[in-house]
Amino acid sequence: MLEILTPAHLGWAVAVIFISVIVRFLLRLHFYRSLLKGLPGPPHSYIWGSLRSMNEVISKQPKRAAPQTFGSVIKEYYGLGDYFYVDPWPFGDPLMMVFDADIMNQFTVKQSMPKHPEVEKFMRNIGGPGNMVSSEGAEWKKWRSAFNPGFSASHLMSLVPSILDDVLIFNEILTKHAKNQEVFRMERATTSLTVDIIGKVVLDLDLGSQRGPNELVDAFMRQVRWQKIGAQFNPIELIDFPIRTPIQWYLTWKMDRYIGKRLDERFATREGRGRSKAVVDLALEAYLKEVKGASGDLSTVKGIDPEFKQAAIANMKTFVFAGHDTTSSTIVYTFYYLSKNPEMLAKIRKEHDEVFGTDPDATADRLREDARLLNRLEYTLAVIREVLRLQPPASTVRVGQKGFFLTDPKTGNRLPTEHMMLWPIDVGLHRSERYWPDPHRFAPERHLASSADSSADYNSKEAWVAFSKGNRNCVGQELAIIETKTILAMTLRTFDFEPAFSELDKLKGDNSGYPSDMSGVQEQFGDEAYQVQLGTAKPREGMPCRIKLRQQS
Ligand code: HEM
């Protein structure tokens, strides 16, 4: 045998493998480059696809800017229309970037196209197989219906007292920062707050991450930092897998073990507990329904089936992730925009005085008595919607299919989607002059039904997509709004907030995972608080800031 394998044979084998790899590469290059022929987009070449033209624009942006912002700047730089195609192969699939609400509706509402495989890849380490964000069809439906009761309006209102307990701790932390007169990263504080809130909603557990370290939260935060953002935006991801992959496996194992234990505990103690709408208990309820079957006999069920348990864990993790990251950024950006717009800050404070009385310290009691007071915060809701318009933390990404064409509403042209990633660009829709006059201006009035502001355009809500649209829209949107309103009601009249990007150097090496890097371009859309990608899109550098107690100022 060994005699047959001469060096010449080995040489030939290597040459054949090498040539096949090259041929395959060239065939795929030809395939992808031909796919976009004649379609609108930035300058495209046979060798580079759209990579060079993308780079021309992206290199002028802050180096850590969130990829979801790039579509808008590419559109503006090359003067493109409300949809166009980009070809980043071999770093990723061709993208169809959509800035038109009608076209977006065609693949999210009229027909809900499946999530792109990149979503599954993104969720693999944060959720896992069977998670609700990336699953499809019967599996997705099963979980969405199982969890829906956990997000009913009446149940969410019943959560307000528990949210208040966590916000009171948050206020103690802010008070300490105010008294110490120190610069700190607001995003760290709001993330611990929203994690603690979601811990109760999902696991019926006080994770206590505002007070000190927690194993699950620590693993989660590290996992988010190791999350890929796509090789087309960060090419290092093509080669760093020997380090990234084992770390991600380890963190997944830690999170699964923690949540698995909680599931077992809840399973063992399920009798004697009344009907609970914590996500963990809704998952168990779905399981018991499934195993009970037609016979209705549960006496033989001694534990949770491993396959079901794995999917339940994936969904718990998904809720913990989706339920804190996005809300945390929204709160931080609300503080930011209000600090830049004192007259709006005065207006929202006035609304809180009117609804809760003029003593801010009595707000928690008022809300414990009647959580429905939150429904009266009309201006506060407009502020939150406007923050989410300018800084949406997440978006949906779908996959095109053979035979599935979109229609240009202006020309009636059929637009191909096969082999494409279909991406409604939230940032682009939200900052489009076509839908929002003076689009970069922070103007909550746009969302009020009774506004004298002439820029308000009430018919344009179809272009507000912060929670996505259609049957895959955000299941946690009401919770996010209730939570954010509660936090704002409890903080805005007690503290004055001030961004402190110029003092970033004081936070260098603070173990937050943020680099405190002030080099290069540090503005996007005329704003220093641009979004970076860390899990979802978050405020740059975790929003360094100073805070003052109002009686101090
Ligand atoms: C301001 C806060 C939030 C924003 C902006 C937001 C945004 C979004 C968006 C854009 C999607 C669609 C993602 C996609 O199609 O891939 C989504 C889905 C989802 N969100 Fe949220 N979200 C927020 C808060 C929450 C909260 C608090 C929870 C949980 C309690 C949550 C749980 C989920 C889940 C489970 C999905 C998947 C729904 C499905 O596919 O059926 N989100 N969210």
UniProtKB/TrEMBL annotation:
The keyword DNA-binding does not apply. One of its GO terms (molecular function) is oxidoreductase activity, acting on paired donors, with incorporation or reduction of molecular oxygen. It holds the Pfam family p450. InterPro entries: Cyt_P450 (IPR001128), Cyt_P450_CS (IPR017972), Cyt_P450_E_grp-I (IPR002401), Cyt_P450_sf (IPR036396), Cytochrome_P450_monoxygenase (IPR050121). Heme binds at residue 474. Its cofactor is heme. It comes from the Eukaryota. Pathway: Secondary metabolite biosynthesis. Keywords: Heme, Iron, Membrane, Metal-binding, Monooxygenase, Oxidoreductase, Transmembrane, Transmembrane helix. Gene3D superfamilies: Cytochrome P450. The chain crosses the membrane at residues 6-27. Belongs to the cytochrome P450 family. This is Cytochrome P450. It comes from Salinomyces thailandicus.
